[in-house]
Amino acid sequence: MIWEDHGELFQRCQKNPILTVEDWPYQAHSVFNPAAAIVNSITLLMVRVEDHRGFSHFTMARSKNGIEGWEIDSQPTFVADPVNYS
Fold first, then answer.
1. Longest dimension (CA), the chain
2. Quick check: pTM over 0.85?
3. Using one digit for the tens of pLDDT, what is the confidence trace for 11-53?
4. Shortest CA distance to 82 belongs to which of 55, 53, 61?
5. Domain boundaries, the chain
6. In whole angstroms, how far apart are CA 8 and each of 4, 12, 18, 43?
7. Nearest to 15 by CA among 70, 73, 74, 71
8. What confidence score (pLDDT) does residue 2 get?
9. Cis ω before 17 (30° cut-off from 0)
10. Cα separation of 49 and 26, whole Å?
11. What is the C-alpha to C-alpha distance for residues 63 and 82, in angstroms, rounded to an integer?
12. What angle do CA 69, 15, 22 make, to 5 degrees?
């Protein structure tokens, strides 16, 4: 057998979801499952955010422990470009 089960690869945090639209520093309609990485011992999330027009953009969020104390960029990190990308 190539894969040996050593238990859960990921465990869902008891505080789930850890980020919601109420946490956002600017108006947003929804926040979605982010991409996650650990960079220099900081949990870095690239969160897809939908604005009230229905356009999505990406915003970065950072935390020392990946559960709380999130620092969320005050503006979208990568803005929507609906003219060039529909």
1. 50
2. no
3. 777 888 889 999 999 999 999 988 899 999 999 999 999 999 9
4. 55
5. 21-72
6. 11, 10, 19, 20
7. 70
8. 47
9. yes
10. 11
11. 30
12. 60
